[in-house]
């Protein structure tokens, strides 16, 4: 029987953190770990490059197109809004969503551009009212360390100085409720902690925890 059929909603588990800290690795492991424990879970990621808006974002990230900084920020945000209805339906039906990046990336990255008018508060405002995560797992790692990892590549934002600004912005967004894990630990150790955090959130949501909205924490 699905969780929805048992009357509980699914949990929204979010992974955030600097580039190459291991978000995608942990998201995949967590979805498998949850599913193997009988918790119906799906992996989502932002940007979702499969939609029409996502394709515009993809072209921008690969430097195939250029765009005004406010405009591309709004597209990243719209890419989340366009999936809100489905997100709410999935959670209500008992499916747990493990999501790789969200509005926190949106704000941390755009504000790192330091453009007039595009400060942290403006960046946050376009996502205000979207569903908030039930658990935000922040993978913490100095930029110098993430640079040593495979895969740091040629996309638009993959520049050392820019990444430092992004990490500073994550620090400004950080809340006590975030579950901060040292991302330099082994993949297996991190997975064990993430699974514990996620199972706790799944149980809370199953037993009635209401879904919050950004940025009300
Ligand atoms: N962006 C934005 O501007 N606005 C928005 O609203 C949103 C995003 C949502 C999308 O990148 C870009 O869009 C991103 C933010 C911006 N810009 N940049 N730069 P993406 O999400 O598609 O990026 P990615 O290519 O998936 O990279 P990533 O997410 O930064 O990496 P990761 O997922 O954190 O890491 P990983 O792929 O899991 O691991 C990286 C490598 O490290 C890999 O070789 C692993 O095997 C290794 N790894 C992982 N964990 C470990 C541990 N624990 N030990 C050792 N090695 C490890
Ligand atoms: Mg990733």
UniProtKB/TrEMBL annotation:
<dbReference type="InterPro" id="IPR027417">
    <property type="entry name" value="P-loop_NTPase"/>
</dbReference>
<dbReference type="GO" id="GO:0005739">
    <property type="term" value="C:mitochondrion"/>
</dbReference>
<comment type="similarity">
    <text>Belongs to the thymidylate kinase family.</text>
</comment>
<dbReference type="GO" id="GO:0004550">
    <property type="term" value="F:nucleoside diphosphate kinase activity"/>
</dbReference>
<keyword id="KW-0808">Transferase</keyword>
<dbReference type="GO" id="GO:0005524">
    <property type="term" value="F:ATP binding"/>
</dbReference>
<dbReference type="GO" id="GO:0005829">
    <property type="term" value="C:cytosol"/>
</dbReference>
<keyword id="KW-0547">Nucleotide-binding</keyword>
<dbReference type="InterPro" id="IPR018094">
    <property type="entry name" value="Thymidylate_kinase"/>
</dbReference>
<dbReference type="GO" id="GO:0006233">
    <property type="term" value="P:dTDP biosynthetic process"/>
</dbReference>
<protein>
    <recommendedName>
        <fullName>Thymidylate kinase</fullName>
        <ecNumber>2.7.4.9</ecNumber>
    </recommendedName>
</protein>
<feature type="domain" description="Thymidylate kinase-like">
    <location>
        <begin position="15"/>
        <end position="193"/>
    </location>
</feature>
<dbReference type="GO" id="GO:0006235">
    <property type="term" value="P:dTTP biosynthetic process"/>
</dbReference>
<dbReference type="GO" id="GO:0006227">
    <property type="term" value="P:dUDP biosynthetic process"/>
</dbReference>
<dbReference type="GO" id="GO:0004798">
    <property type="term" value="F:dTMP kinase activity"/>
</dbReference>
<keyword id="KW-0067">ATP-binding</keyword>
<dbReference type="InterPro" id="IPR039430">
    <property type="entry name" value="Thymidylate_kin-like_dom"/>
</dbReference>
<dbReference type="GO" id="GO:0005634">
    <property type="term" value="C:nucleus"/>
</dbReference>
<comment type="pathway">
    <text>Pyrimidine metabolism; dTTP biosynthesis.</text>
</comment>
<keyword id="KW-0418">Kinase</keyword>
<keyword id="KW-0545">Nucleotide biosynthesis</keyword>
<dbReference type="Pfam" id="PF02223">
    <property type="entry name" value="Thymidylate_kin"/>
</dbReference>
